[in-house]
Amino acid sequence: MNRSPRACRETLLIASYLEPELVDIIRVARDDIDVMYRPDLLHPPRYAADHKGSDAHRTPSEEAEWLDLLGKATILFDFDRTHLGDLPEVAPHVRWIQSTSSGIGQFVRRQDYARRMPATVITTASGVHAIPLAEFVAMSMLMHTRGARHVLDEQRRKHWE
Question: What pTM, to 2 d.p., does this model score?
């Protein structure tokens, strides 16, 4: 649903890799939010749904571009893992951080974000893995009870009885 533009627009910075088609959905869904997404400045993902990424490093000019984006952001999709310690200083306008993880309470406490970012709401992805995890457990139980390992071994050997 599109909403009418507000006098004070929000600026969302996507701070970890997200599939481009999902970024497009966000842009279309909310015309009252400026979406900033620079995957070339993020750590490349190592596998599907990898929000940490590899240990790639930015050049000084790329780091300056990234710091400029952080300085403009009012919303962060995920924590910027390259600036966890100085996030309140480099992203002073951020009022909402949507984590891609759940169970981040200890991390947030260690960073002292409640004191250092008192006007910032931090939300988690708690519950998003419940259905896939339940499906995985059911699949694993079926594989075990139905002898999937034996079937796969037989398949590799091209032996069918």
Answer: 0.77
Cα–Cα dist 48/56, whole Å: 17
The β-bridge relationship of strands 33-36 and 121-123 is unpaired
CA 87 – CA 90 distance, rounded (Å): 5
DSSP string over 72-101: H-SEEES--TTSTTTHHHH-TT--EEE-SS
Q: State the pairing for strand pair 75-77/33-36.
A: unpaired
Burial of 108 (0-12, 13-18, 19+ CB in 10 A): middle
pLDDT value of position 73: 98
Sign of the CA dihedral with 151 first, then 48, 108, and 55 last: positive
pLDDT at position 8: 67
**How large is the average pLDDT for residues 46-63?**
86
